[in-house]
User: Which sequence fits this backbone?
């Protein structure tokens, strides 16, 4: 018998949590340190509706000259920690989850043109980048696919030729894994 490792312990907790939410354990274990998970990997067993919906209404960005937009896509020596949802600059952006809008979140410390929001749901929280947020929503509970949380910014001004999109990254609430 081998002693359970920390990693296995986390695995057990995740499996335990799977009664409520199915997660792709392998993806989580790859990203254990920061608890990042692929937004598309969530699905509520009791309800076939996904816990996360596309904030633009569009699909995940396909390959362009800046790589691919799915979770885990290669980024130099790292991997993409979120998923990029295709849309049009200026369009309305909807909350991807049911949750409370916590605060403004910024993707770059060196580029104040771009902003986003941190939204905290019941079991996970998300950061959504490249939106002009509706600041009046801070502290307010919003519903996925219904609440307009802002308008889409033009990421093409920073990355020439990139498919216009918003970036969404989801993280499990560590409390949920306890
Ligand atoms: Zn991205």
Assistant:
């Amino acid at each position: 018998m081998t002693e359970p490792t920390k990693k296995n312990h986390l695995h057990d907790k995740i499996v335990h949590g799977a009664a409520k939410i199915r997660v792709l354990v392998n993806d989580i274990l790859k990203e254990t340190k920061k608890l990042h998970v692929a937004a598309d990997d969530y699905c509520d067993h009791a309800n076939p509706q996904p816990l996360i919906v596309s904030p633009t209404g569009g699909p995940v960005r396909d390959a362009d000259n800046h790589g691919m937009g799915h979770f885990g896509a290669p980024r130099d020596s790292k991997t993409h920690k979120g998923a990029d949802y295709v849309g049009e600059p200026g369009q309305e952006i909807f909350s991807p989850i049911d949750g409370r809008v916590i605060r403004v979140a910024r993707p770059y410390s060196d580029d104040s043109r771009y902003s986003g929001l941190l939204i905290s749901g019941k079991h996970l929280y998300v950061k959504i980048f490249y939106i002009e947020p509706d600041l009046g929503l801070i502290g307010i509970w919003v519903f996925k696919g219904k609440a307009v949380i802002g308008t889409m910014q033009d990421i093409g001004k920073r990355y020439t030729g990139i498919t216009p999109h918003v970036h969404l990254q989801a993280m499990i609430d560590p409390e949920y894994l306890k």
Remarks:
- The longest helix spans residues 6-17.
- The first strand starts at residue 21 and ends at 22.
- Residues 36 and 171 are 5 Å apart (CA to CA).
